[in-house]
Design goal:
6% strand, 5 domains, 3-stranded antiparallel β-sheet, Helix Hairpins, 4-stranded antiparallel β-sheet, single chain, 27 helices, elongated, alpha+beta
Length: 675
């Protein structure tokens, strides 16, 4: 027996009777071998297909065929616009339209008929997914119930069958068989304009089109204003052409029409072609729309006067709306440019009122003009709040921030998801020439311009402040760059990096390794400079006792600061360092106590000359100055955390004690017989 393939569900057996072939729920995408010629297979196959159709297996899912549905929607929208243009001409100038126009209208009727049939087989999106988690309702019965519901219900999404079928009926051919008056036929044919309501599809399709094309919203507004104005003037022109051609339909004499009055008594309206009537009516409507009012075309009978009142009202409101939109578009065409001009005017006014000298004014204005690009980036960055965090980073990378991120050595070759996180944290800044930059807790990459730092010239793609990852301030390069020209930089702050450390522990670990590597190298340089200073002090006359004495407690803060670090980089700056700060304060107090004990232990053995003692006193004064600076740094942290601060009197006491002891020793030495 030959075997074929037929879609089935999990409940369909491979072999069985035709009745068994139709049992069980059906689903798509599963196939099983079935006998190709069992007895009665034709009837079973028909029932099988009907069952599948009822279950929605043949319905069109929008997500599965989006391109095909979009193309069909484009065809339908084209048919709608064609109807909006040709149908008023067909109704108002029925006896004058050409067969070609009637053929196009018939073609649009075919398109609308196909669209009605398609709507019974296009699944719609469910607001509340069912128990099985279906996103779309694909069963034809439910689709038909929604399509044939109350017109324009469910947020203008249901009940469209009735407007569609009413506008599709050939009312002119149907009513002519009952000898209905032609004016009535024309009024009923106007119901086809209800199809224009289907243009609400454009609103839904616009999201997809704008996503792909990204057209300007200002350009879209201009297009909407133009289309609205054109269609309104076209429909009004068709109405006025109809009134001028057939005044007898409304109980008026044939010669009492605005069109006969406009063309003069020498020419009859019946002698004009349809296009001549239309152009005359279009001219009249455009004159009324633009409020020019030449007065050569005026309403004559009562019906035309009423229609003229409505025309003036509609065109006046429309023209005001169009002018308002155009003014709004022109005003917001460059929103940042308007803000920039406002800031420039405010600064000029402020400088005038404060009497700022001319050179400073020139520098300020030049800085503003040079910072236009940077400030525009900051202005645009406010729009990033509408995006998700991932999209913010993607956009920043595509804008060139990704290459800037790679200029910092510990950011090189990071995983893409980390780069996406960091890229959005960079901020643009601009500095004027001869300006000193306070780096603080941030790292910067030069985009354009140049600066000097520690005698080195830094230009494009160079970076400074990358040692912000260090905890110990004495290991950082605290020198400030000085700009040589306008300097544009991209800056990232340490606090912003900590957010990335929370999300990505591997990045936190990588920064910790970079921190240790940099700290070891800077500590090596620090001790080398300290040894060189000690060597210079010794060569200038200080003894080894001076060096050891004045180094008491010198490294206590450093040692405590560099031991027992947490595993992560961020944790080295976190609130867990409260204990370390407290220990630093206690170590400073211990250093002061050690110095005081050392002073007391050597006060009786000072036998140096007056010059040597004075040199020691000066060195001691310098040591205490350094100690005071360390106390101020620690107090800034300790005070914020509510700890006991190191008191200034703790330093002044050993200072005064040492000075008095040195004075007494010098006096004893001077009065000694051996002196």
């Amino acid at each position: 027996m030959m075997v074929g393939l037929l879609p089935r569900s999990g409940g369909l057996s491979i072999a069985g009777t035709p009745r068994e072939l139709c049992q069980g729920p059906l689903s798509r995408g599963e196939y099983a071998p079935l006998p190709t010629n069992p007895p009665g297979f034709g009837a079973a196959s028909q029932r099988y297909c009907v069952h599948r159709w009822l279950e929605g297996d043949f319905s069109i899912i929008p997500d599965e065929r989006p391109l095909a549905l979009e193309r069909w929607d484009m065809v339908l929208i084209g048919a709608l616009f064609t109807t909006a243009v040709l149908l008023p001409l067909d109704v108002s100038l029925l006896s004058c339209t050409s067969p070609a126009v009637n053929a196009v209208i018939d073609a649009t009727d075919v398109v609308f008929l196909i669209d009605i049939l398609l709507h019974f087989n296009i699944a719609y999106l469910l607001k509340d997914p069912g128990e099985k988690g279906e996103a779309y309702e694909a069963r034809p019965i439910m689709i038909a119930r929604r399509y044939m519901g109350v017109p324009c219900s469910q947020n203008m999404e249901a009940g469209w069958f009735w407007p569609d079928i009413v506008t599709l009926i050939p009312w002119d051919d149907t009513l002519e068989t009952f000898e209905v008056h032609m004016a009535t036929v024309r009024m009923i044919k106007l119901t086809r304009l209800l199809r224009i309501l289907r243009l609400v599809r454009v609103v839904k399709l616009f999201r997809k089109w704008h996503t792909r094309v990204g057209m300007s919203m200002a350009l879209l507004k201009i297009g909407i204003c133009a289309l609205t104005t054109i269609f309104l003037v076209h429909w009004l022109a068709c109405l006025w052409a109809h009134l001028g051609q057939h005044p007898e339909y409304y109980g008026q004499r044939r010669q009492d029409s605005w069109l006969q009055n406009y063309i003069g008594p020498d020419v009859l309206v019946q002698d004009l072609s349809a296009y001549e009537m239309y152009y005359s009516a279009l001219y009249f409507c455009v004159v009324v729309l633009t409020t020019v009012g030449f007065g050569d075309a005026v309403p004559i009978n009562q019906v035309e006067i009423v229609v003229a009142i409505l025309t003036i009202f509609l065109t006046g409101v429309t023209w005001a709306w169009v002018v308002g939109n155009i003014v709004n578009i022109i005003t917001n065409l460059d929103a940042f440019g308007n803000t920039f001009n406002t800031v420039m005017d405010d600064l000029n006014s402020l400088m005038d009122s404060n009497g700022v000298d001319k050179s400073t004014r020139v520098r300020i204005r030049k800085h503003l003009h040079e910072s236009y690009k940077v400030q525009k980036q900051k202005h645009a960055h406010a729009s990033f709040a509408w995006l998700s965090e991932g999209l913010k980073g993607e956009l920043a990378i595509q804008s060139g921030v990704g290459s800037t991120c790679n200029r910092i050595w510990y950011f090189k070759n990071l995983p893409r998801h980390v780069v996406v996180e960091l890229a959005d944290e960079f901020r643009a800044n601009l500095f004027s020439p001869n300006e000193t930059i306070i780096t603080g807790d941030s790292a910067s990459v030069i985009v354009r311009g140049s600066c000097m730092k520690n005698g080195r010239l830094l230009t494009r793609d160079a970076c400074y402040g990358e040692d912000m990852i260090l905890v110990s301030r004495h290991l950082r390069d605290t020198s400030c760059p000085v700009t040589l020209s306008f300097l544009e930089v991209m800056t990232i702050h340490r606090e912003d990096m900590m957010d990335a450390c929370d999300k990505y522990p591997e990045f936190n670990t990588r920064l910790r390794r970079a921190q240790i590597r940099l700290a070891v190298w800077r500590q090596f340089i620090y001790f080398a400079m300290k040894m060189r200073s000690a060597s210079r002090a010794k060569s200038q006359g200080c003894s080894s006792w001076d060096t050891s004495f004045f180094n008491i407690g010198r490294n206590s803060v450093v040692d405590e600061d560099t031991k027992c670090k947490p595993p992560g980089w961020k944790e080295s700056f976190s609130e867990d360092n409260k204990e370390a700060d407290e220990t630093n304060a206690s170590q400073l107090r211990q250093s002061i106590g050690d110095i005081l004990k050392a002073v007391e232990s050597v006060q009786d053995t000072m036998v140096r000359s007056n010059l040597e003692t004075q040199s020691c006193l000066q060195s001691f004064q310098g040591r205490f100055d350094v100690l005071e600076q360390e106390v101020a740094k620690v107090n800034a942290k300790v005070e914020a955390m509510g700890l006991d601060m190191v008191q200034q009197k703790d330093i002044e006491q050993p200072k005064s004690s040492f000075r008095s002891m040195v004075g007494r020793a010098v006096e004893r030495r001077a009065n000694s017989p051996k002196s």
